[in-house]
């Protein structure tokens, strides 16, 4: 089966910036985030050997979530300018590898990734999402997995359906309701006040979905509440008081899978047009000589073929 890699670029750049010391080039340009991003890219290409790759980026413009909820991500501290200044360099690296850069105003990178993952798995492709966080766990199925980092940049883990179940006791599609109930402090999504990770997991193990939970909530007798492994009078009160916010939070945390973005699988065939000379030039310019040694085998083969063609 053909393999597609979808890169959550902003998440990886942020993670790299905070995981690595402030590396600079001989000219004094700060490049720690670019180095980390490039290093992960090479590792992914070498380990997974993808046939297709695309890189999604967030845009500065507000998304539909910001418009609907003005407190969305409001408490998140602004990343330093030194991080944002490295994004164009990361894009240069991607362009040299002939990896399409995808952005859509009004949507986040996760929405673009979710849309492409859904579209291309229907075409029989196995998809791996490369990210620095766990926001995309809800997309996992038998053809979509998540490749992320536990600590720093080198300790990686792959989440399939089995791994999500092992960690949370839930199915991947239940992760939406899980976040709707417990909220998401990093994105300032409120959820149900007073329901934490354990409480959210227990409720979903018993009731399956947010909709089913609220459907049954009003019909429960006092004895059923006492006998329930996940409910108490206090929890019932919290759920009833915050019903509107629970469903609103669900809308905010759900990854949009119908972003109006047109691209074919053919256009994601990065090996067709990779500019190996440009990759090496950029790596030398950025003092990433160690990364040149890690260029993947199939890239070296492509370079040899190009050289042989030029001889005749």
Automatic annotation (TrEMBL):
A GO MF term: 5'-3' exonuclease activity
Biological processes, Gene Ontology terms: DNA replication, Okazaki fragment processing
Chloroplast in keyword set: no
Signal peptide (UniProt feature, chain positions): none
The 5'-3' exonuclease domain, residue ranges: 2-271
Keyword Nuclease: yes
Keyword annotations: DNA-binding, Exonuclease, Hydrolase, Nuclease
Record-linked InterPro entries: 5-3_exonucl_a-hlix_arch_N, 5-3_exonuclease, 5-3_exonuclease_C_sf, DNA_polI_H3TH, FEN, HhH2, PIN-like_dom_sf
Name assigned to this protein: 5'-3' exonuclease domain-containing protein
